[in-house]
Known about the structure:
It is a single chain. The protein is mainly alpha-helical. It contains seven helices and four strands, in the order ααααββαββαα. The chain has a two-stranded antiparallel ribbon with strand order 1-2. The chain has a two-stranded antiparallel ribbon with strand order 3-4. Strand 1 (81-86) and strand 2 (94-99) form a beta hairpin. Helix 2 (20-31) packs antiparallel against helix 5 and helix 3 (36-58) packs parallel to helix 5 (112-127). The longest helix has 27 residues, at 167-193. It is elongated, with a radius of gyration of 27 Å. The termini are far apart. The mean pLDDT is 82. The structure holds zinc ion. Zinc ion (ZN) is lined by residues 136, 138-139, 141, 152-153, 156, 158.
Amino acid sequence: MQRRATRRLNTQPATRYLGEPEGTRIADWLNAAGKREEKRRFISLLDHLKGFAIDLRRGVARFVGPDGAMKLNGILSGYSYRLSFVSDPDELFKLAVIPTAPARGNARSVTTEAMMVNLLMFDLWRLGRVDRIRQCQQCGRWLFARLAHHRYCPGTDCARKSNEAKPSFKARRRAYMRRYYAAKLSAGSRSKRSGVRKSK
Ligand SMILES: [Zn+2]
């Protein structure tokens, strides 16, 4: 059977950038259409975790505060799940997360997909890469930043466009054009004085 040959155990290929497989899947999910409510919840949790990460790095509790862990646990209590092995067209024995109805209060309906994306986010948290899930500063699409300073979609001209829209760039460009035209004008008046005519 053709299909059988393409089904395989997930063998996690070695990647150069820590967290990239997880981060790319999260970014793809966030960029896909629909599921607005689930995404809103996800992004709120992501923002909390990012604030936490910044606090931890600086050794202060500024963003999340001393009650941060409790607050996070409150959000997490809305996610209730069990683990199960499933088989899908791409992978045999895939460990999946099956949402279960929370016991009380806080109940939310969470899809399997949203649950998986949340778990990927916790993987990134463990790897210290949760802050690499970002929105492009030019077009707003989500991306996984391979390096800490990356701010724009990779492989697009978002970085160039953003740079050109900056006031400093515009000012430099204006100054350059002024000098350019001034030089052109003076060259023109010099050639007029010496009687040289420019052909049209
Ligand atoms: Zn972009």
